[in-house]
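ugh ok fine here u go
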Amino acid sequence: MQVLLPSAPLVDTVRMHHVLRDWADSRGKIARMLEAGELISLRRGLYATRRDLDPRCLAGPLYGPSYVSFETALAWHGMIPEGVTEIVSATVKRAADFENAFGRFRYLAVPKAVYPIGVSRVTDFDLPFLIASPTKALADRIAREPGFRSMAEVGRWMEGMRIEPGSRLNHEELTACADGYGRPSVRWLLRWALKHDWIE
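structure:
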């Protein structure tokens, strides 16, 4: 008997057991479908029904609440060259890592105070996903750098990151991130952006 999979790109174990309710051994059938490639395991209890999904769409369902940020979002917005080898997201939960057929997924913790700032929903794919704005992604990334003491250090870091010259940053978002993070690196980034006319 052929299994008619749900049309949704993702399905969990509960849904699969419902789909396979007429099978004597639904757990065994799921295992055979995984082996045959009819289902793709994302993590325990969560499966993809297709192989053509954009990995960024999977970051939220894999581990949430979370939003795509850091180098992944910077590359998405064209602020750094492409070549990101993993999907990096921000979360208010503990840091975590996953690896599956779609790639590597890394989750870094951010303070609850900054989590909602500068996050928008992308709906151009089969699965909508949340992503940081250019300003938020840059703030998230530089906040992980310790010991910044000057704007010159910010400038050198920006060059090392290969941030696209002349990128525009949102003043309100960056100010809120500087306050919410309370880290010298983000405060120095705000001062550097104001001085070098990167603020819109």
